[in-house]
């Protein structure tokens, strides 16, 4: 697959019939797989269907080291897991030589086409793809995206990145059919949600719009209770917003000085303004210097 080739086109051009069969034992799951949660009920339904009709769509794999007869799964993990559950000896496959970037892009797009990824997996998959393309780690990709967003909005007057990098990022989003601005506004903030909310999101039990509403509850105990209620009672977004409003209005407890300080420090660290918004960071530095001066006064 040529670099920068549209991955949707590549998937569409793959043959519908298997080119060969492989031993299930010769296939290993991909470490690049963006999908982490597999719904047990849906997997059971697929297993039943495969038991009755067989695997109708071949798996896409790529060869690992030459000569070891091992293949890495690129697309079709649910079918692969169902085959394992049924203890099938072989599965129908299509074999292609693919780079890490191409394999991840194909896996991501295949899952998106089937609406298989939840919001967190989708976000982390895009960041992982950008990391491979740009040779950056997770935090560097996130910082770069915020810088590019500020640049597009005119918040940064000087050029914070090379033209080639900007074009690479835009090409990846275009190839995946994503809106860059929507991804920054609606997807990237998900990674800053409290851990218990991220876990429920990854499990596919909660929509991201509901998750962000619940995250507005700062009191941990109240937030965890509302999260449990939202999942168990399948609350609508409006119902969740009403409960959030009720929780906030009922909280008359005073915030201690230590809590205020801890909250501010946490916000400063998570925002990473020194990377995402250098101009705002300059103002923060000035305020920090003023605070230090005030504290040191007799």
Automatic annotation (TrEMBL):
Residue intervals of the ParB-like N-terminal domain: 20-112
Can you provide one Gene Ontology molecular function annotated for this UniProt record?
A: DNA binding
Q: Which UniProt keywords apply?
A: Coiled coil, DNA-binding, Plasmid
Does DNA-binding show up as a keyword for this record? Answer: yes
Gene3D superfamilies, alphabetized: 1.10.10.2830, 3.90.1530.30
Q: Which domain of life is it from?
A: Bacteria
**Coiled-coil stretches noted in the UniProt entry, renumbered to this chain:** 214-243
Q: Which family does it belong to?
A: Belongs to the ParB family.
Q: Mind telling me what this protein is named?
A: ParB/RepB/Spo0J family partition protein
Instruction: Please report the organism this UniProt entry assigns to the protein.
Output: Euhalothece natronophila Z-M001
